[in-house]
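Quick one, tokens below:
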């Protein structure tokens, strides 16, 4: 007699075994922790949905199982030491190495099995993306740096127009009087008017001359002030062919200024970085996924600007190679010293770094800086659009040289100016021998002018 109860039990056991065999082929991990580990260790070369330096890793566990019949043990070996796996003669490991231009993958012996399982869980079941944050407002201090100067310029312009109007009216009235005096048909009424005006002018001539003199002086001052501001472009922020936010790069991501402007530390000029400097990072960062967004801009906008870099350098995302077809970028220079001015960045960034930072923070206790670049260029790390933050006039430079004390803890200064300190104490007892830049030649014409 057939035992249906026995067959039913066997059927349940078979179904259970099938379910176990079709369960996920990797140990379940923590997707959130996997996301952190993936971003910290993998995003330089990999993305979930597209090939970068290495293959796309979205669904990599299922893909390897289906295509190569490889399980997570193989992935663990590859991640920890792919070089050793290739040396062992593993066929697929060497195929991957050849396919991706023999690019050596970094070894991760420090990652535990659980860490790798968490990363694999993230590649299989990534958590939903966080909603876009509210756009962060732009730093008001940087945006309104030139507001006061702009208001002053408007007041001066209006004053000059008013003076010009008064002078024109006065000249017109004098012209009428001259015409009346030269006319043979001078009427009695006109004669009385002319005589009355002449009497008034004669009576108050001193006051009139004082007023006209004051207006002339004020007009000359306005004209002189306008002349002095020729070539001064404080607040100047032109539109660039590729939108570059220093706020995102130097502020949010804390990228050091000298990573891009490398010659500022060792050369006279702080160069405009070439596009290959941008590609050092953006070869692996094809799209913007940051949380910071400017008002009126979204991530697609920033991603579009990255694509302009690819167009300029001739980078083909699909093949991950350069096509050789480049397109020069015509940047608009913002800070540009006249030809007759000598300015050495290295001298300020290296020798004068601590002295400049200390002097600036003493004079501006509510606006302290931590990087020497900010003393002249303003808080670049808060600017989305770079602007000229200071006057960069001769007077502005001289004032800095007069007030900035030399850093005597600097080994070179300590040795070179050892006798100067005692000499200055005797020469300027009231300053207690304070050594400023002006005391060591910072006021000499030949230092800045050829």
């Amino acid at each position: 007699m057939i035992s249906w109860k026995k067959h039913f039990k066997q059927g349940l056991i078979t179904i259970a075994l099938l379910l176990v065999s079709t369960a996920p082929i990797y140990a379940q991990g923590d997707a959130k922790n996997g996301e952190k580990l993936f971003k910290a260790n993998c995003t330089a070369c990999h993305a979930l949905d597209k090939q970068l330096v290495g293959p796309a890793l979205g669904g990599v566990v299922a893909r390897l199982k289906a295509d190569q019949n490889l399980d997570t043990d193989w992935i663990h070996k590859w991640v920890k030491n792919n070089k050793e796996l290739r040396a062992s003669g593993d066929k697929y490991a060497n195929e991957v190495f050849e396919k991706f231009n023999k690019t050596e993958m970094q070894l991760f012996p420090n990652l535990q099995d659980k860490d790798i399982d968490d990363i694999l869980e993230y590649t299989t079941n990534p958590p939903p993306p966080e909603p876009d944050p509210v756009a962060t407002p732009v730093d008001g201090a940087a945006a309104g740096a030139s507001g006061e100067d702009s208001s002053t310029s408007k007041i001066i312009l209006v004053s000059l127009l008013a003076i010009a109007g008064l002078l024109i009216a006065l000249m017109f009235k004098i012209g009428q009087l001259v015409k009346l005096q030269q006319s043979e048909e001078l009427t009695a009424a006109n004669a009385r008017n002319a005589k009355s005006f002449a009497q008034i002018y004669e009576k108050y001539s001193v006051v009139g001359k004082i007023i006209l003199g004051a207006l002339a002086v004020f007009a000359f001052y306005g004209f002189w002030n306008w002349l002095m501001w020729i070539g001064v472009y404080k607040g100047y922020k032109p539109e660039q062919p590729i939108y570059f936010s220093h706020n995102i790069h130097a502020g949010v991501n804390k990228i050091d200024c000298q990573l891009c402007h490398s010659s500022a530390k060792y050369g006279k000029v702080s160069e405009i970085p070439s596009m290959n400097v941008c590609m050092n990072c953006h070869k692996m960062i094809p799209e913007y996924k940051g949380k910071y967004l400017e008002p009126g801009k979204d991530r697609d906008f920033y991603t579009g600007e990255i694509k302009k870099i690819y167009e300029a350098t001739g980078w083909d995302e699909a093949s991950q190679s350069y096509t050789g077809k480049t397109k020069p970028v015509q940047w608009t220079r913002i800070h540009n010293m006249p030809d007759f001015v000598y300015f050495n960045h290295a001298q300020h960034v290296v020798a004068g770094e601590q002295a400049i930072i200390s002097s600036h923070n003493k004079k501006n206790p509510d606006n302290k800086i931590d990087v020497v670049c900010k003393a002249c260029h303003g808080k670049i790390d808060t600017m989305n659009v770079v602007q000229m933050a200071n006057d960069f006039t001769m007077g502005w430079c001289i004032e800095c040289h007069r007030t900035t004390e030399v850093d005597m803890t600097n080994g070179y200064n300590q040795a070179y100016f050892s006798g100067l300190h005692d000499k200055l104490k005797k020469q300027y007892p009231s300053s207690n021998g304070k050594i400023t830049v002006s005391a060591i030649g910072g006021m000499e014409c030949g230092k800045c002018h050829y």
